[in-house]
Specification:
Elements: H1 2-28, E1 34-38, H2 45-61, E2 65-69, H3 76-83, E3 91-96, H4 99-106, E4 116-132, H5 140-149, E5 155-158, H6 164-176, E6 181-184, H7 188-196, E7 202-206, H8 211-215, E8 219-224, E9 249-257, H9 262-277, H10 279-287, E10 292-295, H11 297-317
Parallel strand pairs: 1-2, 1-3, 5-6, 5-7
Antiparallel strand pairs: 3-9, 4-7, 4-8, 4-9, 4-10
Helix pairs in contact: 2-9, 4-11
Organism: Arcobacter nitrofigilis (strain ATCC 33309 / DSM 7299 / CCUG 15893 / LMG 7604 / NCTC 12251 / CI)
Pfam families: TctC (PF03401)
Signal peptide: 1-27
Length: 323
């Protein structure tokens, strides 16, 4: 009996110690810098969003944030590193749809949605097709006419197989009976460079990443793939307005590895919400052409789970890569 009492006291003491340690650690959070992983190359849309937002999260969370780029494999490298980071609240990262969800559907990966904790969505960026302003192709109908006469001649760049840019082009090909040639790149900045350099005919990119070149007269944007026009590009019609029912784009939100203390997630989520609502950030986001669409942690989680089911259903019927 005495031995039992002794063991019970030891266990209770250990539990009390661990509880006290966790409480102290939480009370101090954050007591050192936070790392923010971006799964795409520097200068791309996600990188710009991260570096624009980070100072405002710092303002409300009370510590510095270091943005690092882990580009490659359509985002897989960065998403994997985020999912396998220590779940202590000191590593967070941007998570992008649909790549975050399509990559584990189309191939074996070391991460899945279950390995991540969504914190907040920040941006919804509609897709868009664009060509050099010097091209004779000026509209989606021109594109279809040219592609039908010249199967495979239209080369288009995206950020990778299974990206929203790629899925949108596949849908456009399928619905209009045309064939184009896909050339994947490691990031939007590389797609943009290839387009402006004349190495590809068309870029399939999110509209926020094309709008500045459009305003400078370098490119023609054929349409935006959203239900409604993004206020930052009111002069560019939607695909639907032109008779093409294609809605495709990219959510860019913030996540953490699974297993982070919910109280820490709440602290980060609160800081992100305040950062996105900060008038100074909103003004900078407008100048950076960032289409802000905020969702809290629960809304973002529900949205991702619903989107994952939809993408799985599409893959089961019409896979976008070789199985």
């Amino acid at each position: 009996m005495k031995k039992f009492d002794y063991i019970s006291k030891v266990i209770m003491s250990a539990v009390a110690f661990l509880t006290l340690t966790a409480t102290v650690a939480l009370a101090k959070y954050p007591d050192r810098p936070i790392t923010m992983i971006v799964a795409y190359s520097a200068g791309g849309g996600t990188d710009i969003a991260a570096r624009t937002l980070a100072p405002y999260i710092e303002k409300y969370i009370g510590t510095s944030i270091t943005v690092i780029n882990k580009a490659g494999a359509g985002g897989q490298i960065g998403f994997t590193e985020l999912a396998h980071s220590k779940p202590d609240g000191y590593t967070i990262g941007f998570i992008n749809t649909p790549n975050l969800l399509t990559i584990p559907i189309q191939r074996k990966t070391r991460y899945s949605l279950k390995d991540l904790t969504p914190i907040a969505n920040v941006i919804y960026d509609p897709g868009a097709f664009s060509m050099l302003a010097t091209s004779k192709i000026k509209t989606l109908k021109d594109l279809i006419t040219y592609a039908k006469k010249n199967p495979g001649a239209v080369t288009y760049g995206t950020t990778g197989i299974g990206s929203d840019d790629h899925l949108a082009a596949l849908q456009f090909e399928r619905e209009n009976g045309i064939v184009m040639t896909h050339i994947p790149f490691k990031g939007n900045n590389k797609v943009r460079a290839a387009l402006l350099g004349g190495h590809i005919m068309m870029a399939s990119m999110n509209i926020s990443q094309s709008i500045d070149d459009f305003k400078d007269g370098k490119i023609t944007i054929f349409g935006q793939m959203s239900e409604k026009k993004w206020p930052g590009a009111p002069q560019i019609p939607t695909f639907k307005e032109q008779g093409f029912n294609i809605i495709m784009g990219s959510d860019r939100g913030i996540g953490a590895p699974a297993g982070v203390d919910p109280k820490i997630i709440s602290i980060i989520s609160d800081a992100v919400a305040k950062a996105v609502a900060d008038p100074e950030f909103q003004e900078k986001a407008k100048k950076q052409s960032l289409p802000l669409t905020y969702m809290n942690a629960k809304e973002f989680k529900d949205h991702l789970e619903k989107l994952q089911k939809n993408l799985q259903q599409i893959w089961d019927v019409t896979p976008w890569a070789k199985k």
